[in-house]
Design brief:
Elements (H helix, E strand, L loop, with lengths): L11 H7 L4 H20 L7 H12 L10 E5 L5 H9 L3 E6 L2 H10 L4 E4 L13 E10 L8 H8 E12 H4 L4 H10 L3 E12 L4 E10 L2
Parallel strand pairs: 1-2, 1-4, 2-3, 4-5
Antiparallel strand pairs: 5-7, 6-7
Helix pairs in contact: 2-5, 3-4
Bound molecules: S-adenosylmethionine.
The site of S-adenosylmethionine has 22 residues, from helix 2, helix 3, helix 4 and strand 4.
GO molecular function, one term: S-adenosylmethionine-dependent methyltransferase activity
Pfam families: Methyltransf_11
Protein name: Methyltransferase domain-containing protein
Length: about 220
């Protein structure tokens, strides 16, 4: 859990998600929200652009030896599959998704862009082999009352050397909740290079911005 302080947004589902009392609460909330999640977040007062921006960021940083149609991508906290859908539009063919909520995963399955979908709890060690994926994406999930900074070392473990981690962290929790400190630690330990942590549009229609954190795994 990232932190417990209630946060107010312009969408009631997110208010509830950001003040979830634990994993069971969060899982039920997302199971309930799953059917209308995409429609709700596409509304002009949300304009949730982070998944599309994430896919463009992945495509931007891959090297010629990492063709998008050949590499393995792990979409952590994949939800209904907005990130997988955006990656597939750019040509990605090997995407696995993991998420806490079976309801969200069911929606993601309907998209038919993921090779494998599994439930998981990102606050525990991942059931993913070390050095097995080229890219980890984690969008909208390192957030209030969801998943804290400790998951980042697990992302490093499962990613191959020279692979990439692309994740959003809301501006208002980047430093206070310790994401920045964890990234700095991974940099000091020479496990990653921090390529970018620029702030940009997230839920653009609500005026909410987030860091798009891009780390190259060097371990
Ligand atoms: C705001 S949604 C983001 C989903 C998707 N990445 C997107 O950008 O639309 C947050 C997701 O994190 C998942 N989640 C929350 N806590 C989690 C945990 N501990 N382990 C795995 N997934 C979690 C929720 O089930 C939900 O699907």
């Amino acid at each position: 859990m990232a932190e417990k302080k209630p946060v107010t947004t312009n969408i009631e589902w997110l208010n509830r998600a950001y003040s979830a009392k634990g994993l069971t609460d969060l899982r039920s909330l997302y199971d309930e929200w799953a059917a209308s999640y995409d429609t709700d977040l596409v509304q002009p007062n949300q304009d949730y652009v982070a998944p599309t921006l994430c896919a463009a960021t992945v495509a931007k940083y891959l090297t010629p030896s990492q063709p998008l149609d050949k590499i393995k991508i792990l979409d952590a906290g994949c939800g209904t599959g907005l990130v997988g859908g955006a990656l597939a539009k750019l040509g990605a063919k090997h995407i696995d998704g993991i998420d806490l909520s079976p309801g969200m995963l069911k929606q993601a399955g309907n998209l038919r862009v993921y090779e494998k979908l599994d439930t998981c709890d990102l606050s525990k060690p991942l059931e993913v082999e070390s050095d097995s994926v080229d890219v980890v994406t984690c969008i909208g999930t390192l957030t209030h009352a969801h998943v804290g900074p400790e998951v980042l070392s697990e992302f490093v473990r499962v990613t191959k050397k020279d692979g990439w981690i692309v994740a959003t962290v809301l501006d208002d929790i980047w430093e206070p909740v310790g994401y920045r400190a964890e990234v700095d630690k991974l940099v000091r330990e020479k496990k990653v290079e921090l390529v970018s942590a620029d702030s940009g549009d997230y839920r653009r229609g609500a005026g909410v911005s987030a860091r798009m954190v891009v780390m190259k795994v060097i371990k």
